[in-house]
Amino acid sequence: MIAILGAIVVLAAVLIGFTMAGGKIGALIHPSELVVIGGAALGALIIMSPKRVLVELVKGIVQVLKGSPYDKSTCLELLGLLNALARLARRDGMLALDSHLAEPENSDIFRQYPRVLGNPHLREFLCSALGRIVDGSAEPSALETELEADITVREREHHQVITALSKTADSLPGFGIVAAVLGIVVTMQAIDGPVEEIGHKVGAALVGTFLGILLSYGFLAPLAGRLELMGEQEVVVLRAVILATVELAKGANPRELVTRVSRVLSSDCRPTAEELKQLMGSS
Known about the structure:
11 helices; 0% strand
């Protein structure tokens, strides 16, 4: 919702400033310019991006509009889930986690934390990491290295999405010029017409340049920046899962595990002392 509000502010500022200068909103409405700029930008995006990047880009844009899935509520649920799983492992042994990790959708523990359960990336990474402890297939030090390699792959793939969107944003001013040149060509065809008609066509051509720059710097470039920040938030949370996995493998008690994990979370997601106390006492 914040992203939508920001887009509204950008558009409102431009339109209000234009009308304050004596312009008429109707002068900016030229669908043909949008078709040229938008169509060319979309085609360029398709040319440069494999199917996986396009799919992830669409998902990323939808997530930006919905808001980051790694807010404080999610982090608190993650800490609560880790606390519950650590308590279960300490009481009944690591093998007691197997059924919960194999089918988290059917786990009575995971169901108590819907934000974690409903986040496929986080849920799968958590279950995969803890699953390595349950089956005893990796030492804590080797496990940390393997999980960091997994995060590196995720970062690289996420960066590919951001790069594709950034390059598209960079191309928009150029496509705006293309639209403007086409508008001038149309104007030259009507050069013998009335002055009013020529002025209208020149204005339409200039709108193409305006739209290309506005869409680039006002919308797509900020959108790419937002995706980058969301990717960094995800990495912080996934690294918290790595720390929790390693601490659990070393035999840390639930309180120590949750306390240490909470310290690596970003400051806006870190629980207060009271929240941490309530969280530890809820399981």
